[in-house]
Amino acid sequence: MVKPFIPQLVYAEPRALDYPLGKKLISKFEKMGIEIRQTTSHNQIRNLPGDNHFQKYRVAKSTLVLGVRKTLKFDTSKPSAEYAIPFATGCMGHCHYCYLQTTMGSKPYIRTYVNVDEIFDAAEEYMQERVPEITRFEASCTSDIVGLDHLTHTLKRAIEYFGRTDYGQLRFVTKFSHVDHLLEAEHNGRTRFRFSINDDYIIKYFEPGTSRLHERIEAAVKVAEAGYPLGFIVAPIYLHDGWKNGYKEMFEKLEAALPERAKKNLTFEMIQHRFTKPAKRVIQQNYPMTKLELDESKRKWKWGRYGIGKYVYQDEEQAEIKSTLGGYINTYFPDGKIEYFT
Predict the structure, then answer these.
(1) Which of 88, 111, 175, 262 is an S-S bond match for 224, by CB 3.0 to 4.6 Å?
(2) Which CATH architecture group holds 9-341?
(3) What is the mean pLDDT of each run of 10 residues along the chain (342 residues)?
(4) What are phi and psi of 289, to 5 degrees?
(5) What residues does each domain of the chain span?
Protein backbone atom coordinates (compact mmCIF):
# COMPACT_ATOMS: atom_id res chain seq x y z
CA MET A 1 0.00 0.00 0.00
CA VAL A 2 1.35 3.42 -0.95
CA LYS A 3 1.49 5.73 2.05
CA PRO A 4 0.26 9.33 1.73
CA PHE A 5 2.95 11.63 0.35
CA ILE A 6 5.23 13.38 2.84
CA PRO A 7 7.94 15.63 1.34
CA GLN A 8 11.51 15.07 2.44
CA LEU A 9 12.45 18.65 1.58
CA VAL A 10 10.34 21.85 1.46
CA TYR A 11 11.13 25.17 -0.22
CA ALA A 12 9.21 28.37 0.46
CA GLU A 13 9.08 31.28 -1.97
CA PRO A 14 9.16 34.70 -0.24
CA ARG A 15 5.52 35.70 -0.76
CA ALA A 16 4.21 32.29 0.26
CA LEU A 17 4.30 33.37 3.89
CA ASP A 18 1.98 36.30 3.11
CA TYR A 19 -0.89 33.82 2.79
CA PRO A 20 -2.60 31.83 5.56
CA LEU A 21 -2.05 28.48 3.79
CA GLY A 22 1.69 29.22 3.43
CA LYS A 23 2.02 29.95 7.14
CA LYS A 24 -0.05 26.91 8.07
CA LEU A 25 2.03 24.54 5.93
CA ILE A 26 5.35 25.91 7.17
CA SER A 27 4.19 25.41 10.76
CA LYS A 28 3.02 21.87 9.94
CA PHE A 29 6.31 20.88 8.29
CA GLU A 30 8.39 22.41 11.10
CA LYS A 31 6.50 20.26 13.61
CA MET A 32 7.14 17.21 11.42
CA GLY A 33 10.88 17.94 11.46
CA ILE A 34 11.12 18.36 7.68
CA GLU A 35 13.97 20.51 6.35
CA ILE A 36 12.67 23.87 5.08
CA ARG A 37 14.70 26.09 2.78
CA GLN A 38 13.98 29.58 1.44
CA THR A 39 14.21 30.35 -2.26
CA THR A 40 13.70 33.60 -4.15
CA SER A 41 11.88 31.65 -6.86
CA HIS A 42 11.22 28.03 -7.74
CA ASN A 43 13.37 28.63 -10.85
CA GLN A 44 16.34 29.26 -8.57
CA ILE A 45 16.27 25.86 -6.87
CA ARG A 46 19.68 24.28 -7.26
CA ASN A 47 21.85 21.71 -5.55
CA LEU A 48 19.27 19.13 -4.62
CA PRO A 49 20.85 16.24 -2.70
CA GLY A 50 22.16 13.34 -4.78
CA ASP A 51 25.37 12.13 -6.44
CA ASN A 52 23.93 11.69 -9.93
CA HIS A 53 20.91 12.50 -12.10
CA PHE A 54 19.06 9.37 -10.97
CA GLN A 55 19.31 10.32 -7.27
CA LYS A 56 18.62 14.02 -7.82
CA TYR A 57 15.52 13.19 -9.86
CA ARG A 58 14.09 11.07 -7.05
CA VAL A 59 14.82 13.73 -4.45
CA ALA A 60 13.14 16.32 -6.67
CA LYS A 61 10.02 14.13 -6.90
CA SER A 62 9.78 14.21 -3.10
CA THR A 63 10.45 17.96 -2.81
CA LEU A 64 7.55 20.37 -2.23
CA VAL A 65 7.68 24.07 -3.11
CA LEU A 66 5.22 26.51 -1.54
CA GLY A 67 4.60 29.12 -4.20
CA VAL A 68 2.32 31.91 -5.33
CA ARG A 69 0.51 31.55 -8.64
CA LYS A 70 1.26 34.79 -10.47
CA THR A 71 -0.45 33.98 -13.78
CA LEU A 72 -4.18 33.85 -13.19
CA LYS A 73 -4.96 33.32 -16.85
CA PHE A 74 -6.22 29.75 -17.08
CA ASP A 75 -5.28 27.37 -19.90
CA THR A 76 -8.03 25.64 -21.84
CA SER A 77 -8.52 21.96 -21.04
CA LYS A 78 -10.32 20.25 -23.89
CA PRO A 79 -11.84 17.73 -24.15
CA SER A 80 -12.49 17.26 -20.43
CA ALA A 81 -13.35 20.84 -19.39
CA GLU A 82 -13.39 24.48 -20.49
CA TYR A 83 -10.45 25.50 -18.30
CA ALA A 84 -7.62 24.06 -16.23
CA ILE A 85 -7.65 25.50 -12.71
CA PRO A 86 -4.09 25.72 -11.35
CA PHE A 87 -3.69 24.54 -7.76
CA ALA A 88 -0.43 22.60 -8.09
CA THR A 89 2.18 21.32 -10.53
CA GLY A 90 4.25 18.17 -10.42
CA CYS A 91 3.45 14.74 -9.04
CA MET A 92 4.80 12.31 -6.45
CA GLY A 93 4.02 9.30 -8.64
CA HIS A 94 6.63 7.68 -10.88
CA CYS A 95 4.53 6.75 -13.92
CA HIS A 96 7.00 6.01 -16.70
CA TYR A 97 4.82 7.29 -19.53
CA CYS A 98 3.62 10.54 -17.90
CA TYR A 99 3.49 13.67 -20.09
CA LEU A 100 4.71 15.69 -17.08
CA GLN A 101 8.09 14.08 -17.82
CA THR A 102 8.63 16.72 -20.46
CA THR A 103 6.36 19.57 -19.37
CA MET A 104 8.12 19.65 -15.99
CA GLY A 105 11.48 19.43 -17.75
CA SER A 106 14.45 19.52 -15.41
CA LYS A 107 12.34 20.59 -12.40
CA PRO A 108 10.14 17.63 -11.48
CA TYR A 109 9.49 18.83 -7.93
CA ILE A 110 5.94 19.41 -6.71
CA ARG A 111 4.70 22.96 -6.34
CA THR A 112 1.52 23.92 -4.51
CA TYR A 113 0.04 27.39 -4.76
CA VAL A 114 -0.99 29.10 -1.54
CA ASN A 115 -2.95 32.06 -2.99
CA VAL A 116 -6.06 29.91 -3.28
CA ASP A 117 -8.62 32.72 -2.87
CA GLU A 118 -7.05 34.63 -5.78
CA ILE A 119 -7.38 31.51 -7.94
CA PHE A 120 -11.06 31.22 -6.93
CA ASP A 121 -11.59 34.90 -7.81
CA ALA A 122 -10.15 34.27 -11.28
CA ALA A 123 -12.43 31.23 -11.69
CA GLU A 124 -15.41 33.42 -10.79
CA GLU A 125 -14.53 35.81 -13.63
CA TYR A 126 -14.34 32.94 -16.11
CA MET A 127 -17.73 31.67 -14.96
CA GLN A 128 -19.32 35.12 -15.28
CA GLU A 129 -18.08 35.43 -18.87
CA ARG A 130 -20.01 32.29 -19.86
CA VAL A 131 -23.27 32.72 -17.90
CA PRO A 132 -25.77 31.09 -18.36
CA GLU A 133 -23.56 28.26 -19.67
CA ILE A 134 -21.94 25.91 -17.13
CA THR A 135 -18.15 26.28 -16.94
CA ARG A 136 -16.17 23.16 -16.06
CA PHE A 137 -12.75 23.41 -14.41
CA GLU A 138 -10.18 20.59 -14.55
CA ALA A 139 -7.96 20.51 -11.44
CA SER A 140 -5.52 17.76 -12.44
CA CYS A 141 -3.90 18.86 -15.71
CA THR A 142 -0.47 19.44 -14.18
CA SER A 143 -0.57 17.40 -10.98
CA ASP A 144 -2.30 14.57 -9.15
CA ILE A 145 -4.05 16.96 -6.79
CA VAL A 146 -5.51 14.21 -4.55
CA GLY A 147 -2.02 12.88 -3.83
CA LEU A 148 -1.16 16.20 -2.21
CA ASP A 149 -4.44 17.27 -0.66
CA HIS A 150 -4.15 15.46 2.68
CA LEU A 151 -1.48 18.11 3.42
CA THR A 152 -3.01 21.24 1.88
CA HIS A 153 -6.81 20.67 1.80
CA THR A 154 -6.88 23.04 -1.20
CA LEU A 155 -8.91 20.55 -3.22
CA LYS A 156 -11.41 20.14 -0.39
CA ARG A 157 -11.86 23.91 -0.30
CA ALA A 158 -12.30 23.95 -4.09
CA ILE A 159 -14.96 21.22 -3.96
CA GLU A 160 -16.92 23.24 -1.42
CA TYR A 161 -16.35 26.49 -3.33
CA PHE A 162 -17.77 25.06 -6.56
CA GLY A 163 -20.53 23.37 -4.56
CA ARG A 164 -21.79 26.87 -3.73
CA THR A 165 -21.70 28.18 -7.32
CA ASP A 166 -24.56 28.25 -9.80
CA TYR A 167 -22.54 28.02 -13.01
CA GLY A 168 -19.34 26.15 -12.09
CA GLN A 169 -18.37 22.51 -11.96
CA LEU A 170 -15.10 20.94 -10.82
CA ARG A 171 -13.41 17.84 -12.22
CA PHE A 172 -10.20 16.06 -11.33
CA VAL A 173 -8.64 12.63 -11.67
CA THR A 174 -6.33 10.67 -9.38
CA LYS A 175 -4.31 7.48 -9.09
CA PHE A 176 -4.34 7.72 -5.28
CA SER A 177 -6.73 6.24 -2.75
CA HIS A 178 -6.18 8.81 0.02
CA VAL A 179 -9.67 10.29 -0.20
CA ASP A 180 -11.12 10.02 3.30
CA HIS A 181 -10.88 13.74 4.13
CA LEU A 182 -12.79 14.57 0.92
CA LEU A 183 -15.79 12.38 1.69
CA GLU A 184 -17.37 14.91 4.06
CA ALA A 185 -16.92 17.90 1.70
CA GLU A 186 -20.16 19.66 0.74
CA HIS A 187 -19.91 19.04 -3.00
CA ASN A 188 -23.64 19.40 -3.82
CA GLY A 189 -23.11 17.19 -6.86
CA ARG A 190 -21.03 19.83 -8.64
CA THR A 191 -17.72 17.93 -8.60
CA ARG A 192 -17.05 14.87 -10.72
CA PHE A 193 -14.52 12.73 -8.88
CA ARG A 194 -12.61 10.57 -11.38
CA PHE A 195 -10.10 7.78 -10.94
CA SER A 196 -7.44 6.79 -13.43
CA ILE A 197 -7.64 3.03 -13.80
CA ASN A 198 -5.66 0.48 -15.75
CA ASP A 199 -5.07 -3.22 -15.88
CA ASP A 200 -2.78 -4.87 -13.34
CA TYR A 201 0.12 -5.27 -15.81
CA ILE A 202 0.34 -1.55 -16.51
CA ILE A 203 -0.01 -0.50 -12.86
CA LYS A 204 2.63 -3.04 -11.84
CA TYR A 205 5.25 -2.15 -14.44
CA PHE A 206 4.61 1.50 -15.31
CA GLU A 207 2.92 3.18 -12.33
CA PRO A 208 5.23 2.84 -9.30
CA GLY A 209 4.48 5.10 -6.39
CA THR A 210 0.70 5.06 -6.96
CA SER A 211 -2.20 3.17 -5.36
CA ARG A 212 -2.91 -0.30 -6.74
CA LEU A 213 -6.08 -1.03 -8.75
CA HIS A 214 -7.97 -2.61 -5.83
CA GLU A 215 -7.15 0.42 -3.65
CA ARG A 216 -8.42 2.84 -6.30
CA ILE A 217 -11.62 0.82 -6.70
CA GLU A 218 -12.14 0.75 -2.90
CA ALA A 219 -11.66 4.54 -2.84
CA ALA A 220 -14.11 4.93 -5.75
CA VAL A 221 -16.73 3.00 -3.78
CA LYS A 222 -16.28 5.41 -0.83
CA VAL A 223 -16.57 8.39 -3.18
CA ALA A 224 -19.75 6.98 -4.75
CA GLU A 225 -21.26 6.38 -1.32
CA ALA A 226 -20.48 10.01 -0.45
CA GLY A 227 -22.75 11.01 -3.33
CA TYR A 228 -20.18 12.39 -5.75
CA PRO A 229 -20.76 11.99 -9.48
CA LEU A 230 -18.10 9.43 -10.43
CA GLY A 231 -15.96 8.87 -13.48
CA PHE A 232 -13.04 6.78 -14.71
CA ILE A 233 -10.25 7.58 -17.09
CA VAL A 234 -8.80 4.47 -18.69
CA ALA A 235 -5.33 5.75 -19.51
CA PRO A 236 -2.98 5.16 -21.01
CA ILE A 237 -4.53 2.29 -22.94
CA TYR A 238 -1.44 0.23 -23.74
CA LEU A 239 -1.20 -2.84 -25.94
CA HIS A 240 0.69 -5.69 -24.28
CA ASP A 241 0.44 -9.47 -24.35
CA GLY A 242 -2.95 -10.34 -22.91
CA TRP A 243 -4.26 -6.76 -22.94
CA LYS A 244 -7.80 -7.77 -23.84
CA ASN A 245 -8.07 -10.12 -20.86
CA GLY A 246 -6.31 -7.61 -18.60
CA TYR A 247 -8.81 -4.87 -19.36
CA LYS A 248 -11.76 -7.29 -19.18
CA GLU A 249 -10.70 -8.31 -15.66
CA MET A 250 -10.33 -4.63 -14.70
CA PHE A 251 -13.90 -3.83 -15.77
CA GLU A 252 -15.21 -7.00 -14.07
CA LYS A 253 -13.63 -5.95 -10.77
CA LEU A 254 -15.05 -2.46 -11.12
CA GLU A 255 -18.56 -3.67 -11.92
CA ALA A 256 -18.55 -6.09 -8.98
CA ALA A 257 -17.47 -3.43 -6.48
CA LEU A 258 -19.49 -0.33 -7.40
CA PRO A 259 -22.88 0.26 -5.77
CA GLU A 260 -25.79 0.14 -8.21
CA ARG A 261 -26.67 3.80 -7.65
CA ALA A 262 -23.21 4.90 -8.85
CA LYS A 263 -23.61 3.03 -12.14
CA LYS A 264 -26.47 5.30 -13.23
CA ASN A 265 -24.31 8.42 -13.61
CA LEU A 266 -20.92 7.14 -14.63
CA THR A 267 -18.52 8.59 -17.18
CA PHE A 268 -15.58 7.00 -18.97
CA GLU A 269 -12.75 8.69 -20.84
CA MET A 270 -10.36 6.58 -22.91
CA ILE A 271 -6.87 7.78 -23.81
CA GLN A 272 -4.47 5.62 -25.82
CA HIS A 273 -0.77 5.58 -25.02
CA ARG A 274 1.22 8.21 -26.89
CA PHE A 275 4.68 9.71 -26.65
CA THR A 276 6.78 12.45 -28.20
CA LYS A 277 10.46 12.32 -29.15
CA PRO A 278 11.41 14.67 -26.26
CA ALA A 279 9.37 12.55 -23.84
CA LYS A 280 11.08 9.38 -25.01
CA ARG A 281 14.51 10.87 -24.24
CA VAL A 282 13.46 11.98 -20.76
CA ILE A 283 11.71 8.68 -19.96
CA GLN A 284 14.77 6.65 -20.94
CA GLN A 285 16.98 8.93 -18.85
CA ASN A 286 14.77 8.79 -15.74
CA TYR A 287 13.66 5.14 -16.04
CA PRO A 288 16.44 3.39 -17.98
CA MET A 289 15.10 -0.09 -17.18
CA THR A 290 11.53 0.60 -18.29
CA LYS A 291 9.62 -2.03 -20.25
CA LEU A 292 7.66 0.73 -22.00
CA GLU A 293 7.55 0.18 -25.76
CA LEU A 294 8.71 3.40 -27.46
CA ASP A 295 9.45 2.26 -31.00
CA GLU A 296 8.44 5.01 -33.43
CA SER A 297 8.36 2.58 -36.37
CA LYS A 298 5.42 0.74 -34.81
CA ARG A 299 3.37 3.90 -34.37
CA LYS A 300 1.52 6.53 -36.34
CA TRP A 301 2.75 10.12 -36.20
CA LYS A 302 0.13 12.71 -35.31
CA TRP A 303 0.25 16.48 -34.94
CA GLY A 304 0.05 17.58 -31.32
CA ARG A 305 -0.43 20.85 -29.47
CA TYR A 306 2.25 23.51 -29.84
CA GLY A 307 3.50 21.88 -33.03
CA ILE A 308 5.09 18.90 -31.27
CA GLY A 309 4.08 15.68 -32.99
CA LYS A 310 3.26 12.55 -31.02
CA TYR A 311 3.34 8.86 -31.76
CA VAL A 312 0.02 7.03 -31.33
CA TYR A 313 -1.17 3.56 -32.30
CA GLN A 314 -1.88 2.67 -35.93
CA ASP A 315 -5.46 3.25 -37.16
CA GLU A 316 -6.42 -0.43 -37.07
CA GLU A 317 -5.04 -0.77 -33.51
CA GLN A 318 -6.99 2.30 -32.42
CA ALA A 319 -10.16 0.84 -33.91
CA GLU A 320 -9.57 -2.43 -32.03
CA ILE A 321 -8.95 -0.58 -28.74
CA LYS A 322 -12.10 1.48 -29.17
CA SER A 323 -14.34 -1.46 -30.05
CA THR A 324 -12.88 -3.79 -27.39
CA LEU A 325 -12.93 -1.40 -24.43
CA GLY A 326 -16.10 0.29 -25.62
CA GLY A 327 -17.70 -3.15 -25.76
CA TYR A 328 -16.64 -3.91 -22.18
CA ILE A 329 -18.07 -0.60 -20.95
CA ASN A 330 -21.37 -1.20 -22.76
CA THR A 331 -21.56 -4.73 -21.34
CA TYR A 332 -20.67 -4.00 -17.71
CA PHE A 333 -21.98 -0.42 -17.47
CA PRO A 334 -24.86 -0.08 -19.95
CA ASP A 335 -25.89 3.24 -18.37
CA GLY A 336 -22.32 4.60 -18.44
CA LYS A 337 -21.33 7.35 -20.84
CA ILE A 338 -18.14 7.23 -22.92
CA GLU A 339 -17.17 10.90 -23.14
CA TYR A 340 -14.36 10.48 -25.68
CA PHE A 341 -11.61 8.27 -27.03
CA THR A 342 -8.38 9.94 -28.03
Answers:
(1) 262
(2) Alpha-Beta Horseshoe (3.80)
(3) 94 95 98 91 69 82 95 91 96 89 74 98 98 97 96 98 98 98 98 98 96 98 98 98 98 97 95 93 91 95 79 97 98 97 94
(4) -95, 10
(5) 9-341
